[in-house]
Amino acid sequence: MSTSAIRSQNHPTKILVLGATGATGRLIVDKAIAQGYKVTALVRSAEKGRELVGTKLAIGDARDEAALRQALKGQDAVISALGTPASPFKEVTLLSTATRALVSAMKAEQVSRLVAITGMGAGDSVGHGGFVFDRLIFPLLLRRVYADKNRQETIVRESGLDWVLVRPSVLNGKPERGASRVLENLSEFQGGTIARGDVASFVIDQVKSDTWLHRSPLITW
User: Fold this and answer.
1) Could you give the percent of the chain with pLDDT greater than 70?
2) pTM of this prediction?
């Protein structure tokens, strides 16, 4: 569904959120509801989603295309806030597997708008996290996670959907500032942090905005 189609609807825009029980995902849900969106969260169990007040719950695994198709019925857009813990030794496949299933399900259900959070260090943003992130955290803890984020980004880029890939710098729990820097040219950027609340606000804005359509902005303070 194009942005113009989303904007022309008389009913509130309906968003499916993946990763809604994570720290950033919960903020996305809360902010989207506050802005008048109707939100559905795909969660693994009703117990997992018990704190998502005002949200319709769809029960299922994000890697299950059938569950995704059921959750996507009647939706206008998808926000993926899927994450995975640091994995120094074990291969990571959750993000790419779920995204591949999601793209297929979105095409089947004719939902075209996808806003997906990846992270600083994905794609051509690698090497811009600053000394500690680039030399210690990334190679020792996140190398396998980011290998899967790269696979995830490739799947999204090749999907044919109306996508935006959002790459936050290092997330923190500080109060949001209400504004952030949005960068594509990273030649003079090294490291940075951003509040989860500011990430949530930016991501929600992309549901109806074409400013960053088919682009992968890095957001930071």
Assistant:
1) 95
2) 0.94
